[in-house]
């Protein structure tokens, strides 16, 4: 099940979340992702995991056949549902990323944006197994997340015995929360895909990585 403390943090952060995509130093990478992600999902029936406020849903919608955008938290999902999309091919539903069998639909692709970093290392296999179980053979899985960049990323404040790293995050009301935030290497990503899919491709930008593979 999704971490309750982290879910509460993102529920409270929802009205401010999209500000992260306006950071000036990240604009070149953002534009590249806005091109690569829709291209990888063209003509697909997409299950989106951890859709959040729907920022990436709007780009996926432009090329996908259909999109089912899911999130565990009601507040960001409400923001996502209120957006205008380029096509009327998106529906929304609340779902736990570890219980995707409860999402109705038949899918030929999955997309997860900025969720992998919030998975404990011990949970990545379980997550991928659940995603791939919902895909037809030949489906595409597309995952994007942050790279750690000194001076831009929030500092890592703790590492546990399993190698999971954590950050202290401050909300606009001044409260702070410790958040799990892992930064996998390209080798770790390829290893994680083994047994779940084939032909993994990893694009490493300055601030982000993009993983695609075939189920």
TrEMBL record:
<dbReference type="InterPro" id="IPR029063">
    <property type="entry name" value="SAM-dependent_MTases_sf"/>
</dbReference>
<protein>
    <recommendedName>
        <fullName>Methyltransferase domain-containing protein</fullName>
    </recommendedName>
</protein>
<feature type="domain" description="Methyltransferase">
    <location>
        <begin position="46"/>
        <end position="138"/>
    </location>
</feature>
<dbReference type="Pfam" id="PF13649">
    <property type="entry name" value="Methyltransf_25"/>
</dbReference>
<dbReference type="InterPro" id="IPR041698">
    <property type="entry name" value="Methyltransf_25"/>
</dbReference>
């Amino acid at each position: 099940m999704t971490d309750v403390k982290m879910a509460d943090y993102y529920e409270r952060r929802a009205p401010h979340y999209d500000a992260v995509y306006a950071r000036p130093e990240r604009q070149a990478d953002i534009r590249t992702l806005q091109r690569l992600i829709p291209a990888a999902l063209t003509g697909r029936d997409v299950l989106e995991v951890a859709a959040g406020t729907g920022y990436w849903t709007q780009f996926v919608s432009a090329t996908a056949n259909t999109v089912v955008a899911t999130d565990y938290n009601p507040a960001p999902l409400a923001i996502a549902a209120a957006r205008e999309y380029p096509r009327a091919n998106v529906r929304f539903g609340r779902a736990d990323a570890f219980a995707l069998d409860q999402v109705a639909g038949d899918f030929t692709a999955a997309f997860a944006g900025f969720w992998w970093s919030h998975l404990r290392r011990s949970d990545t296999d379980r997550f991928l197994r659940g995603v791939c179980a919902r895909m037809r053979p030949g489906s595409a899985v597309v995952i994007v997340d942050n790279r750690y960049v000194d001076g831009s990323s929030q500092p890592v404040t703790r590492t546990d015995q399993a190698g999971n790293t954590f950050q202290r995050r401050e909300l606009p009301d001044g409260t702070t929360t410790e958040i799990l935030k892992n930064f996998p290497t390209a080798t770790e990503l390829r290893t994680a895909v083994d047994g779940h899919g084939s032909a993994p491709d990893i694009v490493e930008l300055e601030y982000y990585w993009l993983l695609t593979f075939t189920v």
